[in-house]
């Protein structure tokens, strides 16, 4: 082997970028100077006027403002001497950027909860027991527990006999999914049903059982204390409408569902003295909205309509739930174990009304005009409300994403838009901000809304990547009808809808009423 000679090697490491603290945005400085009356500190009284006039908290009291000031001083200065409390500009910015002190939504139930069930959108899951895909994943009570903790109110269980026909299993029939015992699911539902909401949990059964096993389910269900509904998507459920089934089992069914015969329009027929629940696949529902949109709305004013994903969604993907809500469907069932935009919209809708899992349908879906006229989702409507969203700044990526960007200079931008009726749907984005973990955009967007009652504000943050697809850096979805005006700290979530520890944006919301 010949002599290769000496050689040297130089390794160049990229610069490690530090975190530069961004100061308060210009608008925050200006409002501070205004309400601190030009001084160096904002007193409790100053803060109360800010809450009333800028934040729209017209009922804010001196006690409310005092509590905020005290909490800021505890967290920043370990000091709560009331006689000395006045917020500096940095204290004020700290308060505005605190998600728990200055959230975008009110975390309490505030809607009328005494109306009939048909008057509400209900947080509904599909095949709630599956851990993954629809064909070969495990069946378990774990996804049920997780969904209940998010506020889910409708749990679906598919009931099948075991091999020896002496016990009941939960599984996705005619697939390779591994089963879980029904009693395990029921006990978990009993334990976690009201961990996130005090309002009723509905269990829908897709029933493939013999009368003897139905009797066993009745005993199990009574032991677990939940009323149930029978999902009428199979012939076995029809037996509940006849004397064959066990009486105790039939007594569990509060709203029987079946597969009505005849054409689609006949299925949507409203009967004066009878309330029904109808289940339609997403394809059949879309066909119904195209051909009989107003009939769907009229049906849902009195009856319960459930929509479920088409069978070809074997990877547990989902459809757009807004098509169901804009036609009044109460139970828009999604695969909770997946992730992506449809579930983000679901999380946004049911962030309403304190996250209790029941959202009162807007009046326009329940109103009946002259000649039995109801809301028509295809009709061209005038702009009813204008929403202005100013994206000031963001923070927290250096904490939650530190492994990803340890040796890089981030370049963040924000996408802001509306999901709703087709006329309101839009998406816009800020400029990219390079080299700062605390990006400041200070860009305002205006959205003209024809149906603000069901519009959802979509927000996504991305990090620009020149060589590959831009990286996801957080998202959230908020119900427009419940946005609190003024400066608000908005937390961000990952792709699965789980809240990041530190990621948040500082936004300002302003509503402009339009004279119609």
UniProtKB/TrEMBL annotation:
PROSITE patterns: C2 (PS50004), PIPLC_X_DOMAIN (PS50007), PIPLC_Y_DOMAIN (PS50008). One of its GO terms (biological process) is release of sequestered calcium ion into cytosol. GO terms for cellular component: plasma membrane. Residues 360-494 form the C2 domain. It catalyses: a 1,2-diacyl-sn-glycero-3-phospho-(1D-myo-inositol-4,5-bisphosphate) + H2O = 1D-myo-inositol 1,4,5-trisphosphate + a 1,2-diacyl-sn-glycerol + H(+). Its EC number is 3.1.4.11. Its cofactor is Ca(2+). Keywords: Cell membrane, Hydrolase, Lipid degradation, Lipid metabolism, Membrane, Transducer. It comes from the Eukaryota. Residues 279-365 form the PI-PLC Y-box domain. It holds the Pfam family EF-hand_like. One of its GO terms (molecular function) is phosphatidylinositol-4,5-bisphosphate phospholipase C activity. It is found in: Cell membrane. It is an enzyme of class 3 (hydrolase). It is a peripheral membrane protein. This is Phosphoinositide phospholipase C.
């Amino acid at each position: 082997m010949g002599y290769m000679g000496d050689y040297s090697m130089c390794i160049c490491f990229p610069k490690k970028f530090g975190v530069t603290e961004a100061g308060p945005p210009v608008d925050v400085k200006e409002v501070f100077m205004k309400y601190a009356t030009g001084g160096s500190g904002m007193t409790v009284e100053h803060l109360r006027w800010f809450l009333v006039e800028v934040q729209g908290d017209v009922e804010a009291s001196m006690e409310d403002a005092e509590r905020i000031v005290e909490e800021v001083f505890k967290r920043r200065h370990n000091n709560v001497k009331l006689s000395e409390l006045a917020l500096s500009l940095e204290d004020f910015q700290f308060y505005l950027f605190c998600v728990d002190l200055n959230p975008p939504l009110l975390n309490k139930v505030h809607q009328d909860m005494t109306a009939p069930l048909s008057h509400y959108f209900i947080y509904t899951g599909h095949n709630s027991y599956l851990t993954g895909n629809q064909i070969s994943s495990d069946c378990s009570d774990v996804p049920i527990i997780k969904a209940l903790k998010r506020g889910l109110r409708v749990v679906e269980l598919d009931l099948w006999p075991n091999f020896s026909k002496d016990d009941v299993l939960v599984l996705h029939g005619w697939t390779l999914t591994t089963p879980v015992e029904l009693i395990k699911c029921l006990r978990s539902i009993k334990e976690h049903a009201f961990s996130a909401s005090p309002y009723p949990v509905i269990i829908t059964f897709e029933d493939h059982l013999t009368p003897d096993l139905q009797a066993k389910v009745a005993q199990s269900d009574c032991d677990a204390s939940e009323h149930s509904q029978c999902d009428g998507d199979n012939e076995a459920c029809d037996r509940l409408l006849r004397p064959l089934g066990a009486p105790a089992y039939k007594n569990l069914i509060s709203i029987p569902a079946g597969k009505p015969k005849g054409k689609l329009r006949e299925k949507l027929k409203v009967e004066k003295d009878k309330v029904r629940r109808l289940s339609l696949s997403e394809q059949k529902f879309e066909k119904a909205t195209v051909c009989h949109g107003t009939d769907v709305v009229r049906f849902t004013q009195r009856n319960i309509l459930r929509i479920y994903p088409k069978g070809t969604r074997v990877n547990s993907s989902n459809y757009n739930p807004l098509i169901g809500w804009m036609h009044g469907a109460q139970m828009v069932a999604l695969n909770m174990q997946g992730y992506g935009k449809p579930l983000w919209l679901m999380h946004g809708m049911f962030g309403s009304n304190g996250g209790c899992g029941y959202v009162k349908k807007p009046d326009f879906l329940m109103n009946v005009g002259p000649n039995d006229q109801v809301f028509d989702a295809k009709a061209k409507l005038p702009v009813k409300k204008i929403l202005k969203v100013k994206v000031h700044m963001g923070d927290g990526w250096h904490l939650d994403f530190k492994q990803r960007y340890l040796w890089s200079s981030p370049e963040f931008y924000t996408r802001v838009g509306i999901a709703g009726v087709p006329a309101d749907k839009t998406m816009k984005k800020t400029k990219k901000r390079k080299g700062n973990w605390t990006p400041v955009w200070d860009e305002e967007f205006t959205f003209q809304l024809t149906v603000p009652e069901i519009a959802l504000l979509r927000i996504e943050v991305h990090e620009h990547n020149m060589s590959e697809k831009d990286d996801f850096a957080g998202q959230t979805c908020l119900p427009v009808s419940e946005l609190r005006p003024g400066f608000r700290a908005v937390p961000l979530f990952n792709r699965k809808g789980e809240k990041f520890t530190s990621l948040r944006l500082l936004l300002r919301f302003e509503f402009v009423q339009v004279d119609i």
